[in-house]
């Protein structure tokens, strides 16, 4: 019976490609399911044979540790170089998006506080 190795929700395309390549390199059979049209299911990478599941999970843990180390090093280098995205840059480049986000936060906080205010008064 097939077993889910990786849910593709919020997974970057390069990471999906890396996982596919890793599984193909180690000759582990897998298949992918595509995301549903309405976003109910995000798709996934499934291991076909039960005997390969333990090895695939071990490889996945190793891959994720390596990726974490690499991405953190890239981010630290970008911060040192001054190329990492900051809040100030986002505010300058997309002021409307920041304003709408702040407005949405205020509205949601108001909705959360509304029952308390109604019960007190």
UniProtKB/TrEMBL annotation:
Enumerate the InterPro entries for this protein.
DUF6164
Asked if the keyword Transmembrane belongs to this entry, the reply reads yes
Instruction: Give the top-rank taxon of the lineage listed in the UniProt record for this protein.
Output: Bacteria
Q: Where are the transmembrane segments?
A: 98-119
Q: Which UniProt keywords apply?
A: Membrane, Transmembrane, Transmembrane helix
Q: What is this protein called?
A: DUF6164 family protein
């Amino acid at each position: 019976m097939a077993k889910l190795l990786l849910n593709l929700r919020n997974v970057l395309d390069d990471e999906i490609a890396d996982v596919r390549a890793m599984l193909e390199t180690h000759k582990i059979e897998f298949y992918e399911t595509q995301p549903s049209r309405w976003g109910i299911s995000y798709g996934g990478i499934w291991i076909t044979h039960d005997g390969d599941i333990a090895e695939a999970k071990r490889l996945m843990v190793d891959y994720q540790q390596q990726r974490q180390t690499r991405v953190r090093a890239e981010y630290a280098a970008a911060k040192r170089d001054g190329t990492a995205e900051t809040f100030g840059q986002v505010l300058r480049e997309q002021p409307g998006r920041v304003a709408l986000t702040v407005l949405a936060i205020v509205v949601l906080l108001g909705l959360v506080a509304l029952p308390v205010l109604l019960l007190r008064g």
